[in-house]
Amino acid sequence: NYHVDSLCMKLSSSIFALKRIRAISTAEATRTCYHALFESHLRYGIIFWGGAKQENLKRVLVLQKRALRSMAGLQPRESCRNSFQSLGILTAVSLYILETVDFALKSPLPRNRNFHNYNTRYNSNFNLPIHRTSIFSKKPSYAGAKLYNMLPQSIKEGTPSTLKKRLRQWLADIPLYSM
Questions:
Q1: Which of 84-98, 103-117, 152-166 tops mean pLDDT?
Q2: CA pair distance 147, 64, nearest whole angstrom
Q3: pLDDT tens digit string along 104-149?
Q4: Organism's domain of life (predicted)?
């Protein structure tokens, strides 16, 4: 994938910059630079390329772990799962989930409450259409609706803005490495 190849080159350059910044500044400044230099490139179009192939997310996740290790001062073979939690940084997989669920909430997909008037446990869930091809299941709107339906009920309650905050906190607490 051309986009992922160019993204990986940009992220590698950002890792070099983060290593230099960490050597001369504070941890908070390095974290701010991470969000500016690394995560901004990572978020761009993630709802489109993130669901295409799992290899794409894995390649980017490897670079993200390398960036986090340089920020936290970890050795190359050390686990960085705790560093994701302590720094409050979302993994590439978590960013994909957050962005696709947000996209699905903004799309005009039908929900279960549109088909009946009585209150049920899953009335806020999206009504997923039946499909025959795998490419349909990779559409951002469908993937986001499916991910939303799998979320715990405690996260889905409330307005879309509170849902996004709760989802972000939930994803930060459990760093996901795969879908």
A1: 84-98
A2: 23
A3: 988 888 787 777 777 878 778 888 888 888 888 888 999 999 999 9
A4: Eukaryota
Q: Are residues 144 and 163 in the same domain?
A: yes
How is residue 67 written in tokens? Answer: 């960036």
Is residue 141 within 8 A of residue 107, CB to CB? The reply is yes
Tokens of 48: 């489109």
- Structural domain total, the chain: 2
Q: What is the distance between the alpha carbons of residues 163 and 169, in angstroms, rounded to a whole number?
A: 10
Residue 137 half-sphere exposure toward CB, CA atoms < 13 A: 8
Same domain, 67 and 123: no
Question: Do residues 20 and 57 both lie within one domain?
Answer: yes
Residue 96 pLDDT exceeds 90 = yes
Same domain, 78 and 105: no
Task: Choose between 13 and 128: higher pLDDT.
Answer: 13
Spatial contact of 175 and 81, defined as CB atoms under 8 Å apart: yes
- Gap between the Cα atoms of 164 and 125, Å rounded: 15
- Residue 105 CB-density burial (10 A; 0-12 exposed, 13-18 middle, 19+ buried): middle
- Residue 142 pairs in a beta bridge with none
